Amino acid sequence: MKFSEMIYQRPELETLTAEMTALTARLKDADRYETAREVFLEKEKLDKRVQTQATLAEVRHTIDTRDAFYDEEVKFWNNAMPELQEYAQAWTKTMLASPFRKDFAAEYGDLMFVNAEIQLKTFSPEIIPELQQENDLTQEYEKLLASAQIPFENGVYTLSQLSPFKNDPDDGRRLAAWQAEGGWYKANQPKLDEIYDKLVRLRDTMGRKLGYDGYTELGYYRMGRNCYTKEDVEKFRAAVVEYLVPVADSIYKEQAERLGKSYPLSFADAALEFRSGNPKPAGSADDILAAGKKFYDELSPETSRFFRMMLDDKLMDVLSTEGKAGGGYCTSIPDYDVPFIFANFNGTQHDVEVVTHEAGHAFAAWMNRDRIPLETVWPSMEGCEVHSMSMEFMAWPWAEDFFGVDARKFRYSHLAGALTFIPYGTMVDHFQHVVYEKPEMTPAERHAVWKELLGVYMPWMKLDGEIPFYAEGEGWQRQSHIYSSPFYYIDYCLAQTVALQFWAMLQSDRSAACPFDPQCLRSVCRKAKTWLSEYDLSGIR
Ligand SMILES: [Zn+2]
Asked: For residue 210, how far is its CA from the centre of ligand 1 (angstroms)?
């Protein structure tokens, strides 16, 4: 079925809560596994229905944030979801207390119980008002960014539309684009500071209401982390500083030389990888989708069927249009057993990543579409990002189809970018640990923390007054995850480490895959550094 034909209908909140209460009572009363199982499967159906409607509202809202109907619907869901959580919690408690847990675990795996125990630690009806305010505030942030209308040269641009100019090979034009964008953020900084300050305090309150020493522990539980801790992340962080920062630093030193710029680089110069311009996809949006079709057709029969369905049913909205929310994501519409991809094509190599990265998520979700329980269709985020980031590397043999003459540039840029991303991503995570450890910090103090971390994780960046906002060390405010999904970001770094191991394996060298083992990051770095230094850059500098 085409995405546009999928029917959205707001459910009655009272009906939903009554259904959930009835199911929970029936589960409690079940005297045989068969009966309990039947109720469990009915609850699965209800979850699918709720998730489908909430997702349709959310997707259609992000496609046009000016649409008043879906704006109202998203508001409804922002309020409904926290309320429904109370009923979901009653269900979860009943499942955990069920005498048939062993039978359930034997049929559907024990993971749902492990996760349920974690989930119970994230909620109490006492924090419903905070959860609702949190939703409103993150939506306010998203809308503020989507509303940006930035004058540049002779036009007016959204943040997403402006970003190609931030990679322009013309030094003056590129710098002007960074200044225009930074100027917009700077002009909106009081609002950005206010939203984040409220979010930090809200989250700290939630943590304390639930009996924790602030937000961090709750944040880990909310991310569903069932196999690693803050201490593991600290170990990873140390390995990043020891092994990756020097490699990334050497990449930028060589870049400065290629560009004829002095080191450290300004934000505008760090964005230009080759003097002759960054790799660009060959052709239009349709050409990229056609190249994607060829890639998935040739990769395997499963990927071929999957991608053709995505195209036929219009399950990808990729053009950057006015009123559309920024960024890109992939989600699932469970009643229809399909994923959906949202993106903002802008003529850069990012467009190809939509077809490789986001479709990597979509493919994993589609392969998992029959999985029970529903919550395991998507694993936790670091697992999900392994699917997407590895798919990016699997597409290397098809780089010529996506990039034409720029394919050679792309391979270098992709590997270098994967390496330089990890210090940045780790810094985003480190920053949040400091923020939630000291929720009483003022906005100015938070900016100072970010600026200090820049010196540790990104020593190649020049901090001076040339570009408002960025050069003042305040660029974290453009990273939406910091606002909307605390502690999410490290998942990308862990996944990138594993994806780099896939890259190494694809270069026909197999090594064990645990991102927390410092030796793993070390060996991946060594291999990647050798590859980059031996890469033939003649003709593409
Ligand atoms: Zn992703």
From this structure: 30
Q: How far is CA 407 from CA 295, 402, 411, 414, 535, in A?
A: 14, 8, 6, 10, 13
Both structure tokens of 179:
């200044």
Q: Give the integer Cα–Cα distance in Å for 395 and 330.
A: 18
SS3 494: helix
Q: Which residue has the tokens 């309320």?
A: 83
Largest Cα–Cα separation, the chain: 76
Domain ranges of the chain: 3-120, 285-403
CA of 232 to the centre of ligand 1 (A): 22
Does residue 181 have a pLDDT over 60?
yes
User: May I ask the CATH architecture of the domain 285-403?
Assistant: 3-Layer(aba) Sandwich (3.40)
Q: Do residues 334 and 359 lie in contact, with contact meaning Cβ atoms separated by under 8 Å?
A: no
State which amino acid sits at residue 179: Q
pLDDT band for position 510 (cuts 50, 70, 90): very low
Q: What is the DSSP letter of 356?
A: I
Q: How far is the CA of 383 from the centre of ligand 1 (A)?
A: 10
CA distance 258 to 169: 12
Centroid of ligand 1 to alpha carbon of 177 (angstroms) = 26
pLDDT digits (tens, 9 = 90+) for 183-206: 999 999 999 999 999 999 999 999
Residue 250's SS3 state is: helix
